[in-house]
Amino acid sequence: VPQGWSYEHDVELARFLYDHSEGVLQHGDCTKEHLSGVEVSSQAEDCGVAHLTDNQTNTFWESSGPPGQHWVRLNMKKGTIVKKLWLMLDGQASSYIPRRVAVYGGAPNRLQHLRTVLINENSFQNVCILRDMKTHVPVLEIRILECRDEGHNVRLQGIKMKSFWEWDLILNADMFQPARLVRYPLLEGVDADVLYRRAVLIQRFVHLLDSVLGYLIPLSEDSIGTFNALR
């Protein structure tokens, strides 16, 4: 820990990183900008893969095959890191709405399980199925494990993505120029190299915390005591 450093310094540094890194991500749908191609397991007539990215609410992709074998494969442009990935559901036909999906990512021949999502029965529009990726993966594959009401095929209005280029968030000491620190009084006067090394540590901590949050299961008798212990 740097000499004279406190928890409040970490809070202010985290706010600085958010303001100067995450700020560039506050724009709209990045799907077309960061996708190089989309593949699907099958498609019904007039309900093809192109409808997944046409940004229209009156069109959709519909699979045409045996249940449990439907998938959407997203080929990502090099350097893309996914911040959020949504499925746009078609709420007109309940049996076509996915109930359980799994997301896999990695090289085409070495996909690894990233997350399984049970979609709330009350969800009829947009559902976020992946968030806060830390590294680039060339391929993301969405596997439809189950549809509602024992449906055989799935129907999606589209996919939506918020993402960024990995080089947008590269940390370096040049980020911490005095002119950028004027709104962060606790950081003013601290050596740029010290701030850089502390920022790297914060990013590593966030990555580690993110990797275990999915395994923290709340107790059924959840109480303020449980929350305090977790905090």
TrEMBL record:
Residues 8-188 form the DOC domain. GO terms for molecular function: ligase activity; ubiquitin-protein transferase activity. It holds the Pfam family ANAPC10. Keywords: Ligase. SMART domains: APC10. PANTHER family: E3 UBIQUITIN-PROTEIN LIGASE HECTD3 (PTHR46654:SF1). This is HECD3 ligase. The lineage of its organism: Eukaryota, Metazoa, Chordata, Craniata, Vertebrata.
